[in-house]
């Protein structure tokens, strides 16, 4: 099928962030941005022989989720694949897309440990479907007109959070009833992360990060970040990957600090655990970041370099996809 995460030609539809593309009329520069903080040099380099626990081969793997003692992969050619984490073997797969045009496909998968959700591309719109994790049968289909590029579907507090249309609509789907509620956003947004208290969105074109109250659906906080793509949250902090590096905020998007250096970008992913922030990108493969200092503490090497992909912590391992290399890697997070 070709390269994953290919953005199309319409600025409103695919949210290209560069000023040269002419998508944004604002030029916020660094005004009001977070203070810079230097990153550490000479991080430890961990070679593949030390970190690689296993690999799984499947075409076009991207988004990842975990439920029912398995890892699930959303592929860019419209499938969901189930992997046994103990053996790395593919134990099931199912085609989700209904589009007749093979060029119409979508990204997006998520789980709260109780339910499994993924996107399903049609010829005219993109749905979100609930899957039985054991059979991969579609048990519910919701016509939400999902944004193509949203590759992680946060499922928190009984709600699946989806960006709709050109990214300027926030859709919450009740995991029990399948009922959805749509709210307008002030910007066209790109990726989501969520807690029970807030839904965070990176709005790439407008260079804003916003927090939305999940009950009132109103924007309760915002912050300017240059080129924001990925967002992760945990332990009362919010991390955003932007064009200048990683920005750390508190959960109200206050107290900003910029750690200039590597970032995830549109081809990578950002993941937060209790002891580390993880950056996945094509150039560095995988970086471990100290959440207190923003310093790169370990660089997980890959020879030769592979494409970008998503990242997930599950069953004691870190899992990451490489969408152009037909591989999902099982990584020892502390080799």
Automatic annotation (TrEMBL):
Residues 1-19 form the signal peptide. PROSITE patterns: PROKAR_LIPOPROTEIN (PS51257). This is YncE family protein. It comes from Nocardioides panacisoli. Residues 26-48 are annotated as: Disordered. Keywords: Signal. The keyword DNA-binding does not apply. It comes from the Bacteria. Residues 26-44 have a biased composition (Low complexity). Gene3D superfamilies: YVTN repeat-like/Quinoprotein amine dehydrogenase. The keyword Nucleus does not apply.
């Amino acid at each position: 099928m070709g390269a994953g995460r290919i953005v199309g030609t319409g600025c409103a539809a695919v949210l290209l962030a560069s000023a040269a593309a002419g998508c944004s009329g604002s030029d916020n520069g660094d005004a009001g941005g977070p203070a810079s903080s230097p990153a550490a040099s000479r991080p430890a380099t961990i070679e593949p022989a030390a970190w690689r626990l296993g690999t799984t081969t499947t075409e076009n793997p991207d988004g990842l989720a975990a439920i029912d003692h398995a890892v699930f992969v959303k592929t860019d050619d419209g499938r969901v694949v189930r992997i046994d984490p103990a053996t790395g073997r593919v134990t099931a797969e199912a085609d989700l897309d209904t589009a007749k045009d093979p060029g119409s496909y979508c990204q997006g998968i998520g789980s709260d440990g109780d339910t499994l959700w993924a996107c399903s591309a049609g010829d005219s719109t993109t749905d979100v479907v609930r899957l039985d994790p054991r059979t991969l049968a579609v048990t519910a289909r919701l016509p939400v007109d999902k944004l193509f590029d949203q590759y992680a579907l946060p499922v928190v507090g009984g709600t699946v959070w989806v960006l709709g249309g050109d990214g300027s609509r926030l859709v919450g789907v009740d995991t029990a009833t399948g009922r959805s509620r749509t709210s307008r956003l002030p910007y066209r947004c790109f990726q989501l992360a969520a807690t029970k208290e807030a839904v965070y969105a990176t709005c790439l074109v407008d260079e804003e990060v916003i927090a939305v109250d999940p009950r009132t659906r109103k924007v309760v906080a915002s912050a300017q970040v240059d080129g924001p793509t990925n967002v992760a949250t945990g332990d009362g902090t919010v991390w955003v990957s932007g064009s200048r590096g990683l920005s750390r905020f508190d959960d109200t998007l206050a107290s900003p600090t910029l750690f200039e250096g590597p970032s995830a970008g549109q081809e990578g992913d950002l993941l937060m655990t209790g002891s580390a922030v993880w950056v996945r990108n094509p150039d560095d493969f995988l970086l471990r970041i100290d959440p207190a200092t923003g310093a790169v503490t370990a660089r997980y090497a890959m020879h030769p370099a592979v494409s970008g992909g998503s990242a997930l912590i599950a069953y004691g391992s870190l899992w990451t996809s490489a969408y152009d290399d037909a591989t999902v890697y099982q990584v020892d997070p502390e080799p």
